[in-house]
Specification:
Layout lengths: L2 E4 L5 H14 L11 H8 L6 E7 L2 E10 L8 E8 L8 H15 L4 E8 L3 H9 L3 E12 L3 E11 L3
Parallel strand pairs: 4-5
Antiparallel strand pairs: 1-2, 2-3, 3-4, 5-7, 6-7
């Protein structure tokens, strides 16, 4: 059974390899493959009122997520989130648990909705998961993501309204 909890100071040595693996694959995130551990930590770990979590199973961290306001000021009522699951943990429902956790957190914080700004159209399993959990594709930027094997594919903007 996977457990989701807030990122602790000592978790980074287990989180960084997950981020590195996902970024180096180059097939889901728009992060620079040359990203260093320090740069990744700066991008990934969200200070309050944002939130960064880990999912662990038997003590080993198998995934991570970060969430917060999508924009500042007049856009701060809409949340956003990002998720990374280690390859060994995929297909086990961990991503779905992280998305549900992020949605629950956003509702509890009073956000009106959650928006994903750049979901690679080629990431079919993520798109289908998000749709099952209430997200719709509200637009696609054609060819905005350079997939390592599929070439240029679209980047979806996805949105889910949140009930208070």
């Amino acid at each position: 059974m996977v457990e989701i909890r807030e990122l602790a100071d000592g978790d980074w040595p287990q989180v960084w390899p997950i981020i590195r693996e996902v970024v180096l694959a180059g097939d889901t995130f728009t992060y620079d493959p040359g990203l260093t551990a320090e740069q990744a930590r700066e991008l990934w770990v969200k200070p309050a009122p944002g939130r960064t979590v880990v999912a662990h199973d038997g003590g080993a961290i198998v995934a991570t997520a970060q969430m917060g306001a999508n924009r500042a000021g007049p856009g701060s009522h809409v949340a956003t989130a990002s998720f990374m699951v280690a390859s060994a943990g995929r297909g086990q429902g961990i991503g779905g648990a992280l998305v549900r956790d992020a949605l629950d957190w956003a509702r509890a914080q009073g956000f009106a909705g959650m928006q994903f700004n750049a979901v690679a159209a080629s990431n079919v399993s993520a798109v289908e998961l998000y749709q099952r959990l209430g997200f719709t594709i509200i637009g696609t930027v054609p060819g905005a993501f350079e997939h390592p094997t599929q070439g240029r594919v679209g980047l979806h903007v996805m949105y889910a309204p949140l009930e208070p």
